[in-house]
Amino acid sequence: MEANAEENARKKMKKLLTGDNDSIILKEQLDHLQKRARTLTGEVSFKQEEDLRLWTTRARLANVIKRHEQLRERLTRDSDKMISERLHKEFEAARAAQTEELCIDGEQWNDGLLATIRERVHMEADIKTLPNHTGKVLDHPFSGKTTYKVGTKVICCLDGARIGIQYETSFAGDPCELYYCVLGSRSFLEKMSVREHTVPFFLPIREAENDLLSSNAKRFIDYVGEILQAYVDRREQVQLLKELYGHQIGELYHSLSYNLVEFVLEEFEW
User: Fold this and answer.
1) How far, CA to CA in Å, does 158 sit from each of 78, 166, 195, 259, 265?
2) C-beta of residue 184 within 8 angstroms of C-beta of residue 160
3) pLDDT tens digits for range 144-176
4) Is the dihedral of CA 19, 24, 26, 30 positive or negative?
5) Are residues 193 and 157 in contact, defined by beta-carbon separation less than 8 angstroms?
C-alpha cells in the first residue's frame, strides 16, 4: 500500500512538473509575442511621429520663407529702389561727362590702377575746394574724366572723393540687373569703406568689407561681382526649373540667396 501510494505521488509530481514546464514555455511565447507587438506598435508610432515632425518643420520653413520674402520686399522696395535710381543717374551723368573710357583686361586690372583711381578722385575733390574754382581744370593731368571698363564692372570717379562700381549681371547671355557699390575715404592715405550700395542685404558684402577692403581693395571689388553673379545664376536657374518642370514639382522652397533649394516631386519615376 505504501509503495503504491509513493508511486502515485511520484506520477502526480511528474505530471505536475511537466505541466508547469509547458505553462512556462507557453507563457514565455506569449510574453515574446506581446513584446513584439509592442515593438511594432512603437515603430509605427515613431514613424508617425517622425512624419508629423517633418511636416511641421516643413510648414514652419514655408512660413519663415514667406515672412522673409515679405521682409525683403519691404526693405528693398523703397530705400534700395531710391538708392539704385539715384546712383544710376549719377553713373549716367559721370559717363556722359567722360572724356575717355578705358577697357582694362587681365593684368592691367591691378592694385596700381586702383591706387591711380583713388588718387584721381581725391585730387579732383581737392581741386574743387580751391578758391575761385570754376569747375574746369584744363592744365591738370587729372582734368579729364575717365571711366574704366573691367569685365562686367564699370568704375567711375564720383564727386566727393568717391569711387563708384557698377556691376552688370546676366544669365544665358541676357542682361539682368545692375548693382552699385560706392567706396570712399576721407583722404588718400586712409582706408576705404563702403559708403552705400544696392547689393541685396542677404549677401555677405559687410563680411567681405571687413575681411578684404582694407587689405585688398581690388579683391573686394572682384568678390562682390562674383557673389552678385552667382546669386543671379542660382535665382534664374530655379526660375528655369519651375518653368520647365513646374507641372512635376509639388512644392519648392529656397532661401533668400538661393543657396538652399528644396523641392518635392509629384511623379516619383521622374
Assistant:
1) 24, 12, 12, 34, 51
2) yes
3) 688 999 999 999 999 889 999 999 999 999 999
4) positive
5) no
Q: Is 80 exceeded by the pLDDT of residue 11?
A: no
Question: DSSP code of 247?
Answer: G
Q: Per-residue pLDDT tens for 105-115?
A: 888 999 999 99
With a cut of 90, say whether residue 39 has pLDDT above it.
no
Residue pLDDT, tens place only, 174-204: 999 999 999 999 888 899 999 999 999 899 9
Q: Which three cell numbers stand for residue 267?
A: 511623379
**Torsion sign, CA atoms 222, 226, 227, 232:** positive
Letter for the amino acid at 28?
A: E
CB 118 within 8 A of CB 188: yes
Residue given cell 561681382 in the structure block: 225
By the 8 A CB rule, do 65 and 238 touch?
no
Query: How far is Cα 3 from Cα 8, in angstroms, rounded to an integer?
Result: 9
The pLDDT, as a whole number, for residue 138 is 47
For 156, phi and psi rounded to 5 degrees?
Answer: -125, 155
Distance, CA of 204 to CA of 194 (rounded, Å): 13
Structure confidence at residue 207 (pLDDT): 96
Give the separation between CA 126 and CA 199, rounded to whole angstroms.
30
Angle, helices 111-128 vs 217-245, to 10°: value is 110
CA 235 to chain centre: 10
